[in-house]
Every structure is written in structure tokens, then in C-alpha cells.
Amino acid sequence: MKNSTNDITYEQLTSQETELQEEEEEEEEEEESSDFFDPTKIRITTKQITMDLLIKRIEYKEINLNPDFQRNANIWTDKAKSRLIESLLIRIPLPAFYMDATEEDEWLIIDGLQRLSTFKSFILDEKLVLKDLEFLKELEKNKYSDLSRNYKRRINEAEFIVYLIEPGTPPKVKYNIFRRINTGGLPLNLQEFRQAINPGKAIKILKELANIPEFQKLTSFSQKRKNRMVDHEFILGFIAFTLISYNSYSSDKGRDDFLDQAMKRLNKIDENRVQEIKNKFIFAMKAANNIFGEDAFRKIRKITEDGKRKYPINKALFESWSVTLSDLSEQELETLIERKENVKEVFIKKMEDDSNFLESVSQAATKVPYRFDTIKEIIKEVLSC
Fold this sequence. Notes:
This protein is of the alpha/beta class.
């Protein structure tokens, strides 16, 4: 029997999802962190640093221009880079840099990656040739080595404000600092924050799994979304619920904290367990492909007169289906593949008749145990036919 009309309906929760598909399947709204922010634990120092010193640190790899939480270094056009250099030449002050100085020998760039990459390209690598300048037209087609001593001095003696997050700053406080930094471009999203404060083998594992053909085929994320680590967050969701039972999920702490804990655990587990997780992930991706094909990890509804609507890939469904499928035996999977049309029919019926289930898969952070239990019920029902 269907839920009452006072309950949330299939149409109410899915009426706007066509727009999501048309706008490159935008991510769900991220949770606000409810962690207590203790201002007494903030350790940030401010320094005035010359270009000479910055370049020396870059040259000796004492500033990391390839942080694991950003894939988008050197995305500026040559025109934008040239205009930045021109700003230095005409002595226009530039925005401050933010860096994590936890490791004295390797500062991690948090905000200002494009600017530092431009400085490296122009001064150290001499790959940038100035073009499309606004004021100093006579310097177009010049490399750094072509500049007069006067202009080189202006660049090398330029001073910048650098905010350094010092050693001893607790990770949670650092996390909150990262969230508040947005001096230009796109602010770091939650997965980028997560990878920034949890460096180590976990990031390597996420990268490796993101390159698995079956995963790429089923998700088809755009390069733009990959650049923002969206694929990594989906994979981390699978790993989180593989390492930590969904029954241990705390709605009070939220999904954000749950994924943070998974990153920390992933950095500590042994190689045998890592390989087991990889095998389960690959098994789940192949299983989803064989059962659902292009409908894997998406909401599905019956074909109507308007035709079939393809919904965006869904975090909640990705986690619940992939983790549950990964626990199947080979025989159980073979049976589900043989009865894949039954799987889809039961799934669609649950989506249409059970408003609690629909709500649980419409937001990744809500009613987590309910959606996992429902997916298990679907599989159990089909296997018992």
C-alpha cells in the first residue's frame, strides 16, 4: 500500500532532477560542519616574503605545487598568466598566499596555486612568453631572460603577504581554516579539504580506484567534476561503509565526519586489507554494470509516454548498492544477473511506494541504515523468487 499523500512523493523528490542532468549533474549540497571551532588553537603566522625567496623554495621543491587535493594547477590561459606578470612589473599588489607550514621543508600551497605556478613557468622554467598585455605592450613576446635588469629587479624584489598555518595546529582546526579560505577562484570542496588534511596512501588508493575502467564507465564524470575530486568522494563512500558498518553511522556527526574517519583508517590499514577493498570494489562495479548497465547507481522509474528519464548518478545509491553488491557470493551475483529485470522492477516499486526509502536516497547524509536495509531487502526478495 502506498504512503499517504501527506508523505513525500516520488514526483516531489525527482521533479527537479532533469535540471541536474542538464547542468552536468551538479553535486549535492555539502553538509555544514558542526564541529566546535576553538579559536585558541589557531596557529597562523604572517610573513612578508620576496619573490626571490618564493622562487628559491619552489626551485628546491620546498613548496608543493602539486598537492593531492588539487588537480588543477596550470589551468590559467597564457593571457591570464601574462597579465599577472604585468601586474608585478607595474607594482600592483597581489592577494596573500595561504600555506600549510606543518612541514618546514615542504610548505603546502592552500590558496594561490595558479599564481605560484605562473611564477614558476615564467621565471624558473621560462616556458611563458608574455602576450596580450594591457599596458606594457613593448614587452610582448618576451621571456623572463629577455627582460631588462630593471624589470627583473621589480619582479624579484616584489613582496607578498604569506599566511603560514604552523605546526601544532590540530587537524580539525586546520580543516575549518581551509573551509574559510576563498581569495579567488573556486573554494576547496569537502573532499579537497579531506585530502588536504589526510595525506598518505589513502589518496593513492582513491586515485587507483578512480582509474578502474568499470567505475569510469558507470559514472562518466566530466573532467570538471574529476578536477574537484567528486569521483574520489564517491569511492571513499564505498570504502567508508566497507570499513565501518552502516549501523555505526552517526547522524549527529554527519557524513562529513564519517568520511573523515574513513580516510584516517584507510591510511593505517595493512596492504592485505587494501587489496581486499580493491577486489571488492572491482567486483561491485562489474556486478552493477551486469545488472543495471547505464542505470547503475541512479534512480529509475517506469517508462512513461514521455519516454525514459535518465537521472544523475546518486551518492546514496552508489554507496548502498556498491557495498551490498560487494558482499555477494559469485552464485548470488549470477542469480541476480539472470533475474536483473526483476531487480529493476522491485527497485522501481520501492522507489515509488516507499517514501522513506526515496527520501533516504535523495540526500546522502539522511536515513543511512534505512536505505542499506532496503537494498538488502530488494536483493533478498529477488534471490528468493
